[in-house]
Amino acid sequence: MSDLLVQLESAFGGHSPLSYIHSPEEERILRALTALSAKLGAAAPLCWSCLGGLGNYADTQEPVAALRKVIQEDLRGFIVFLDLAPFMQAPEVVRALREAYLDGQDKADRHIILLCAELNLPEALKKEIELVEVMPPAEDEIGVLVQKLNQEAKQDLIKEEAVREITLALKGLTENEVWHILRRATASGKTSQEELLDEIFAEKKSVVKKSGFLEFSPPRWSIDELGGLDNLKDWLRRREKIFSREALAAGVPIPKGLLMMGVSGCGKSLAVKTISSLWNIPLFRLDMNLVFSGMYGSPEEAFHRALKTIEAVAPAVLWIDEIENALGLDESGRNLASHIFSSFLTWMQEKPPLIFIAATANKIQALPAEIIRKGRFDEVFFCDLPTAIEREEIFRIHLQRNRADLEEFDFKMLQVMTEGWNGAEIEQAVISARTDAFYEERPFTQRDLNRVIGKIVPLSDTMEQQIKSIRSWAFSRATPASKFGKAASKRL
Fold first, then answer.
1. Is the Cβ–Cβ distance between 132 and 21 less than 8 Å?
2. pLDDT at residue 203, as a whole number
3. Of 21, 38, 167, 437, which has fewest CB within 10 angstroms of its CB?
4. Are 195 and 185 in contact (CB under 8 A)?
5. Which whole number is the average pLDDT over 168-180?
6. At the topology level of CATH, where does 3-133 sit?
7. How far is CA 417 from CA 269, 397, 423, in A?
8. Measured between alpha carbons, how far is 341 from 344 in angstroms, rounded to an integer?
9. Partners of 89 in the β-ladder
């Protein structure tokens, strides 16, 4: 028996006369209701729509007329009203639903079901309507679709060794979305595990884009392109295999998330982006500015929808950039958004296990103690200014990316010239130097880089006191992201 059938059977076991199923998957739910009717020995569900009316009953396109027909004819079994939500603002519809509820209280075999893709519960009926939130297809249901695809093709288009990984990646999508991805991929011949995962990520990007305040970040940054931060990179590599369905089934604690704080421009955001490529799961950035903008309703409502959307596309990484600006404290020590903050803490404790939270902060002292205590995040990392060795590594990465001949550069000199620089400043210096050389139509050389470096004033000079303050806070409260972190914190 499918998880959906079990959920519906449990929901209707209390014989509530009026239920509201909130889901966009009309076909899947009607199929499950038909199977449940057969199991109970009842007739197939009777459906109403504003176009066809109630079954074969004439003149029932209006919802009030259809509900009256249910009462007058004493209809039994599952009676499903499709997309009734837009009509539920009318007082006569609310009244008719209440009368149907009262009439059906002593009729255990009558279930009036409102099946809607949008949630619209009138205040007057909230105590009477039983709300049923249907989850997307479970792994076994997705596995059936994969088997069906292979059977139709009369060959294993999706290989057995790839089925488990593909099934896990498809979780969170609707049945139709899953089927469209599989059909589209096989029609184009893209049936390898890597190609299918690309198709799935593209579909999840589309799902999230519809929300407006979530942004999909493609998995294009390799962890080898992240200079320095060796402790952090080792931590991520050790958890690559743990963040999986196999580890979850084996009872291994799944990583919850990490918080990275430190000096601006030291690679926190880039480190978050590498998680997606390393763990092979999609990364979504939550734009808190849009949540608070009011464009998508109240901030509390928008934030709740964002978290529900992430749950729907799990497994995934949720990236919250500069978390202190949204969930931190103001100058008087009060929460900037206390309602959102409390709901976020609750969600962190109860979220599905295969959602990993990656948060970054520049001013971690502005975060309440509740969010940085052990148990909320697995680890709090401090990203300091890169050491000489790390600066050389960062230079090599950016010079290679800009097609420079590494043999033409003196890295010992570059280490000395960029003392106190962060990674972003090094990257910009390389880009500026190459731009100048390209403009003058000549090869990119050390001389170009030296000239640019001489013009840049690093952040460590302009914000010396702020950096000292950040280091002072992090010294005994956070884990160094770099294996040189403790020594580095004594500089300046």
1. yes
2. 77
3. 38
4. yes
5. 82
6. Rossmann fold (3.40.50)
7. 25, 18, 14
8. 5
9. none
pLDDT > 50? residue 40: yes
pLDDT band at 19 (very low <50, low <70, confident <90, very high): very high
* Within this chain, domains 3-133 and 388-456 share the same CATH topology: no
- Strand 53-54 versus strand 46-49 pairing type: antiparallel
Tokens of 23: 């889901």
| Domain-wise residue ranges, the chain | 3-133, 139-210, 223-383, 388-456
What's the pLDDT tens digit per position in 299-317?
Answer: 777 888 888 888 877 788 9
- Give the span between the Cα atoms of 428 and 422, in whole angstroms: 10
Instruction: Name residue 399's amino acid.
Output: L
Q: How far apart are the first and last CA of the chain?
A: 65
Tokens of 370: 């509740």
pTM recorded for the entire structure: 0.69
pLDDT score of 336 more than 60:
no
Residue with tokens 């589309």: 206
Q: Could you tell me what percent of the chain has a pLDDT over 70?
A: 95
φ, ψ dihedrals at 368, nearest 5°: -65, 150
Nearest Cα to 384, choosing from 481, 466, 307?
A: 481
CB-CB neighbours of 331 under 10 Å: 6
Give the β-pairing of 18-22 and 130-133.
Answer: parallel
State how far the Cα of 233 lies from the Cα of 270, in Å rounded to an integer: 12
- Could you give the C-alpha distances from 100 to 75, 104, 106, 171, 389, in angstroms and in order? 11, 6, 11, 37, 75
Confidence of residue 295 (pLDDT cuts 50, 70, 90): confident
**Class of CATH domain 223-383:** alpha beta
Distance CA 8, CA 2 (A): 10
Q: What is the dihedral sign for C-alpha 56, 60, 64, 65?
A: negative
CB 14 within 8 A of CB 130: yes
Whether the per-residue pLDDT at 104 is higher than 80: the answer is yes
H-type helices in 130-174, by residue range? Answer: 139-153, 160-170
Q: What is the pLDDT of residues 226-243, one digit of tens each?
A: 988 999 999 999 998 888
- What class is the 388-456 domain? mainly alpha
Residue 11 has pLDDT above 60, yes or no: yes
